[in-house]
Amino acid sequence: MSKPPKIGLALGSGGARGWCHIGVLQALDEIGVRPDVVAGTSMGALVGAAWAGGCLAALEAWVRALSPARFVSLMDLRLGRGGLVEAREIEAVLERLGVAARIEDLPRPFAAIATDMETGREIWFQSGPTYRAVRASAGIPGVMNPVRHDGRWLLDGGLTNPVPVSAARALGAEVVIAVNPNAKRLGRIWRPPERPPPPDWLLQLLPDALHEPFGLNGASEPETGKPTYFDVLSASIDVMTDTIRRARMAGEPPHVMLDADLEKMTVLELHRGPEAIEEGRRIVRDEADRIRAICGLD
């Protein structure tokens, strides 16, 4: 009987859409596919670290409890420091979940991808502080402040390696299952949204000067569909990461690519985790037979 291949996961960036990785991991386990290594970028790094640390169920419970009000209450505004928020909660959540403090102490091999702000090169974290590595990887430009680590300022890993197939292979994977939370099945990056009036608690949290650029003055103008600050930011990130992903995939394709259909979710709608998790489960179910065959389980 031949030895089964070493299976690796490459969990892509995507902000809130990246919660689909939770559903992917759950559904893979249900069909008998248990990865040996995981590499993650941005939200993929957060979910990947929780999985590698044996804390995926605890992370899912936290995500499902993340209401819009709870999400905004976690925002630690730090205007003028390279972003809008410090996002220290990312590190705090991993610690509270019980994820090992150092990558080398995680039960499963793990790598997080970040970007060096000075050189533009991707940085792979395969050892060292887990929480700091994940926070560096998940640093959405224009929203989260860059992270200072070992004398370097680090930005989101999606700027250089949105779906880190190469890192999964470097960890020893012989079969790579990649997950792209940002697939564009309808070929559109952005469409004018229909916005209801913002809740009072959100208006009270943010300074008055931020209400208009953040789209908090009510619905968009129907004639023009004028985009807000967050619309422009989300669309720009989508354009950039999709272009980079296509180029990277042409040279280093995975054995299985799972494309999530989450076009109607922006990268910042973190409170919509249950929808993304279910989408992650769906894309595995739809490809279950092929995944099992490629992983040598049939």
How many DSSP-defined strands?
8
Q: Which parts are unreliable, with pLDDT below 50 for 5 consecutive residues or more? A: 219-223
How much of the sequence lies in strands comes to 5-15%
The main sheet comes to:
8 strands, mixed
How many angstroms does the end-to-end distance come to?
A: 13 Å
Task: Give the mean pLDDT.
Answer: 84
What gyration radius follows from the Cα positions, in whole Å?
A: 19 Å
H/E series: EHEHHHHEEHEEHEHHEHH
Alpha plus pi helix count: 11
What best-fitting shape do the alpha-carbon axes yield?
globular
Class by alpha and beta content: alpha/beta
* Helix fraction by DSSP (H/I, runs of at least 4): 25-40%
What does the model show?
With 298 residues, the chain is of the alpha/beta class. It has helices at residues 20-30, 43-52, 56-64, 68-73, 89-97, 130-137, 165-170, 200-205, 229-251, 273-286, 288-294, and strands at 7-11, 37-41, 110-116, 122-125, 147-149, 152-156, 175-180, 256-259. Helix 1 runs parallel beside helix 10 (273-286). The two termini are 13 Å apart.
Name its key features.
alpha/beta, 11 helices, 8 strands
Q: How would you sum up this structure in a few lines?
A:
The protein is of the alpha/beta class and 298 residues long.
List the helices and strands and how they pair.
Blueprint lengths: L6 E5 L8 H11 L6 E5 L1 H10 L3 H9 L3 H6 L15 H9 L12 E7 L5 E4 L4 H8 L9 E3 L2 E5 L8 H6 L4 E6 L19 H6 L23 H23 L4 E4 L13 H14 L1 H7 L4
